[in-house]
Amino acid sequence: MKSASEVLGHVLESPLFEKMNDYRAIAYFIRLMPPSIKMGIAFGYRKNNVLFFALKRSGFQQEFYNKNNVLNQMLKKYQEEKGVLVGVDKIQTFVKRSLYQEEIKKNAANKPTQNYGELSAGTFENLATVEKIHEIFEEIREIILRNKERDAQEASD
Description:
Layout lengths: L3 H9 L5 H15 L2 H4 L2 E7 L2 E6 L3 H8 L1 H15 L7 E6 L2 H13 L20 H26 L1
Parallel strand pairs: 2-3
Antiparallel strand pairs: 1-2
């Protein structure tokens, strides 16, 4: 009678699980990479014998370029020892901007803005001699007074 691990091993070797096995092999290969490269990878996938890595920022592309030979040697060694990702002969990178930056924008949008209230009392002398500038200062005074009233209402609620 076969053990559960043997049965699972046979099931996972099935062609139906080829993409999952590729994903697991890529994830393991990413874990083997140097930390300076590993932290910049969002995800990886295989397509037409090319291993693609989506990077979080464009600065990591230079890091990949500088360590390209090391990564290719690591890939060849990994292919020999583990027998996975066979046929992959090239590594390419691209910057994945959409999801990463949308997440940053969403977090920034959800962050509440801090309101310190109106700090000015609106009591200043308007010494402007040009009428247009004088009007602008008076509009500023009105805005300050409205903000003071709004802050007083919020404090009483």
